[in-house]
Amino acid sequence: MGKSFTRADIIAMHTAPTAIEIPDWDATFYLRKWTAQERSDFLVALQIPIVDGVADTSKLTIDTINVQMSQLVALTLCDESGKRLYTTSEEDLAELNTMEADVLTALYTASAKLNGLQGEAAVKEELKNSEATPKSDSTSS
Fold first, then answer.
1. Which residues pair with 18 in a beta bridge?
2. For 104-137, what is each residue's pLDDT tens digit?
3. 63 within 8 A of 15, measured Cβ to Cβ
4. How far is it, in rounded angstroms, from Cα 85 to Cα 45?
5. At residue 41, does pLDDT exceed 60?
6. I need a labelling partner for 32 at 20 to 30 A (CA). Which of 40, 72, 114, 134 fits?
7. Which residues are CB-contacts of 80 (< 8 A; sequence separation ≥ 6)?
8. Can you name the residues that pair with 30 across neighbouring β-strands?
9. Three-class SS of residue 21?
């Protein structure tokens, strides 16, 4: 049986940032998972419905994606400790929009996947794969 958690334990828990390599820049970027509130705010701003607990991104248009790409990256891009590097201010979003398109797209794609915005088919595949992967008995603090 797993560890029992208190309210304080649950609120204090955060997943470590995920590293993503961008070979074109010979760089490592760090991405963080959103809080439930950040995810809800982002989905509401995009008017993305939740279907069976998964963001249904099937009806997003390319224009909607282009408008929101920098915002998604701004909410996710962080330093090694998980501190966000950008806000969603107009100035920060404009700065992100000056990034090379393929690099911003790679960060956007990884950020969307990390935060559950990759679509129902990908989520089902991910769940299937996680069921096939043995779980570790070790815990970390």
1. 31
2. 999 999 999 998 886 544 444 544 554 444 444 4
3. no
4. 21
5. yes
6. 134
7. 17, 30
8. 19, 78
9. strand
